[in-house]
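[job 4471] stage=fold_predict status=RUNNING
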Amino acid sequence: MVLASFKEAMGLLLRTPVLWINGLAVGLLSALELLLSLGDAGFYAERIWVLEVLVIPFLVAATFGMIRDHTFGLSAYVRNGLKYYFNVLLPSLMIFFAAILTVFLVVITLTVLGIGPDLDIISVIAFGVIIPLVYFTFFYDAAAVFEQQKVFESLRRSVEFVISNGFRTIAFFVVLIGLFILIGMGAMVLWSGLLAGQLEPLTQMSPEDLEMLMPKDIIALLGASGVWISSGIYAAALAVYVTILYPFKAVFYRNAVQPGAAPEGEYDEKGRWYKY
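[job 4471] inference complete, writing structure tokens
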């Protein structure tokens, strides 16, 4: 079912360009955030991050709503985004704050026990909290749109879905991770090839010198053109990944909870659905 869902999602992307909006928006915002961060404008970069947090739920709700209703177009995109915006936003905020609170409580407990957690320990704790939390609540947005669940119900439904579809869910994440590695490696190869000249001094440094390099030193080596190229490649790679991620996630969830829900028919060149 996982590969069939992936194939269907790719078919939707080829026929309905409106589904590309997610990736393009996230890629552009992320590239702008990176440019501002590398340009010593961290204050504004943080604002872009907040904007992403507020915009992404709209993009997700719009995509999932269209795929659920088999109605594609800019008007349907906007309508679904507005209709299910808070259904997606509120659970995501709860997950975020739950992760922070859990890490904070674990750190406080270790401190009370006389174990002074350093940065490495805190990183391990955060990793141990975030990974299972994301894994079990990953489909909250799909539950919020496809089954029109409220805040707490969408989180509970996601946990139920992951547990009841154990092997299929694992296979789904394996495909996502593989896709991430594939796109990431392609981006790294392209980045290294385009910036080989700027990065050449790094090949002549000793391991000790490389360990002492600071981010500002890397930025100085890249130069203005290198920073722009890096941001462009980063935006393109992220755009491709996000563009595939959400339709794949939506189709996988729909096919799992509603077997045979995909109606027989075809899309025309404008993305309109016609049933047989």
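[job 4471] summary: The longest strand covers residues 265-267.
[job 4471] exit 0
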